[in-house]
Amino acid sequence: MKKVSIVGFGRFGRTLYRLIKDDFEIVLYNRSRITIQPGDLTKNTVISEDLNDVYRSDAIIYAVPISNFEEVITSHRKYFRKNHLLIDVLSVKLHPSQIFSKYLRGTKTQALLTHPMFGPDSSKKGFEDLPLILDKFMTNDNNYNFWKKYFQSKKLNVIEMTADEHDRLAADSQGLTHFIGRVLEEYGLKATPIDSLGTQKLLEILDQTCNDSWQLFYDLQHFNPYTKIMRLKLGEAFDKLYNQLLPKQINSNRITFGIQGGKGSFNEEAILYYLNKEGNTNYQIKYLHTSEDVLAALHNGEVDRGLFAIQNSTGGLVEESIQAMARYKFRIIDQFAIKISHALMVRDDVDFSKITTIMSHPQVFAQCKDTLSKKYPHLAQISGEGKLVDHALVAKLLFLGKLPKHVATMGSKILAKMYKLTVIEENLQDAKENFTSFLLVGR
Questions:
Q1: Are residues 328 and 425 in the same domain?
Q2: What pLDDT was estimated at residue 293?
Q3: How far apart (Å, rounded) are the C-alpha atoms in residues 76 and 88?
Q4: With 0-12 CB in 10 A as exposed, 13-18 as middle and 19+ as buried, what is 129?
Q5: pTM of the model
Q6: CATH number for the domain including 37?
Q7: HSE-up of residue 286 (Cα within 13 Å, Cβ side)
């Protein structure tokens, strides 16, 4: 009877032990203490904490986490002998092949690559017809034929293939399945009284994949070089299907534009400039106030086009837009600039001497920094949260009495006419030639 050691006695180490325990003398080794009922061990099994005992076996099977494999091989290699056969059971194959090649080079120690494509859950009812991948790799004919016939005698479905072919195929099978399982977990899929057979299968995938550790999932995705390609393809497929379900145009009679600002904002001025330039008279404008809301509405199919400011010749990049752009996919239809002029405005029933604060967009303050510090250094500068970052909305709320009287705002002087505000001073921008660039985007 051959003597076999199993290094690592976690969930899969125990599954492997169930498979081979009646056929070999077995040494079990684990970093942490092994707890198992005495009746679950065969008379041919011993538990050892001494690596010398482990490496007195003919074959050593490594049932360790993928990410720990190299560390185990490097720390154990002083025990390797020329008659040893090292067997890995990792769910990836190129990684252990590279590790074995690196540390067994110049030795006569043999290495066999295997992947038992089953686990504690899928083997509950037995091992018959479950697949097991074999790659002869650094194994002589005698050892390879012995283990191949042994696995076949356990009625496993033995499939021979190279490490590269395994990882390429596994990325689109095991890697994809585990990824979908984790997506379903993140989604929060739960059983319902009306579940179809297909839904039940999804729940089975969720249950099977998420019973495994996060470490296994991470390692499957990290150590197989083909899983990155799989994830990218999956993301592209999702985006394609998602977009196909959205209407090409919300209203067949007109194009709906969502813009960053409100009525009277520079964004409205910019979209009207663009529409006039293009000769487009059949349109609807939705005033969404923030770049985040513009791109979210575009993504959700609530607008056909989006427009937001991206950069100013004085104030630089519009941080609000940069942050939003990092979260969404879109295509750029056009980029153009308009000249910007800022006015300071207050409610028409308020004495300017009572004003303590200017509330406007951070870009307004950036474009008027030097002028404000010289002319109005006593006024605090603040920007609102969420939609209130839009100075056009600030002007509207001032008019409606929903902001304190001591607050002024800055922006287009058009707002003064719209909301009965008093213009204290115009052209407060630091640069006479003050231009802001806008992006017009689509899905």
A1: yes
A2: 98
A3: 14
A4: exposed
A5: 0.79
A6: 3.40.50.720
A7: 21
- Residue 147 CB partners (closer than 8 Å, separation 6+): 59, 87, 112, 114, 134, 139
DSSP string across 382-402:
E--SGGGG-HHHHHHHHHTT-
- Distance between CA atoms of 343 and 372, rounded to whole angstroms? 11
304 shares a domain with 238? no
d(CA 231, CA 171): 9
The C-alpha atoms of residue 409 and residue 326 are separated, in whole angstroms, by 29
The rounded distance, in Å, linking the Cα atoms of 148 and 431 is: 79
* 371 CA to centre of own chain: 44
Model pLDDT, residue 440 = 98
325: left (phi over 0), alpha (psi -120 to 50) or beta: alpha
End-to-end CA distance of the chain: 66
129 and 7 share a domain? Answer: yes
Candidates 281, 290, 283, 295; CA nearest to 250 is: 283
**What residue ranges of the chain have pLDDT lower than 50?**
none
**E-strand spans in 260-413?**
283-287, 305-312, 316-317, 331-339, 343-347, 357-359, 380-382, 407-411
What are 422's strand-pairing partners?
A: 346
Residue reference for tokens 């992947």: 115
CB 371 within 8 A of CB 428: yes
| Residue 83 and residue 61 share a domain | yes
Print the domain residue range for 398.
252-443
* Structural domain ending residue among the three candidates 211, 228, 245: 245
Number of domains in the chain: 3
Under 8 Å between Cβ of 42 and 22: yes
